[in-house]
Specification:
Length: 85
């Protein structure tokens, strides 16, 4: 009887670990999708083909799109910051 309880506990722990892993992968995928979409949209608006392709190809969990967004402002934002402040 003790052996069968041990196996059931192991299965439950494995199942809970699997659910946790699925949740983590889902959250990270959503994070990547949002940042990749924003980064690709801004790169396309700025005609930065190289950045657009790199953001599209490489999956960096949002790091590459965030770097692009922080380092490259589009021309409209620069104009607004310069003349409308």
């Amino acid at each position: 009887m003790l052996l069968s309880n041990f196996c059931l506990e192991d299965m439950f722990l494995s199942f809970s670990n699997l659910v946790f892993l699925i949740i983590i992968v889902g959250v990270l995928s959503l994070w990547e999708l949002v940042w990749k979409g924003i980064g690709m949209w801004k790169a396309a608006r700025n005609n930065d083909t190289g950045w657009f392709v790199c953001i599209f190809i490489f999956s960096t969990m949002g790091i590459l799109p965030i770097i692009y967004i922080l380092t490259h402002k589009d021309k409209k934002e620069d104009f607004d910051d310069k003349y409308l402040s």
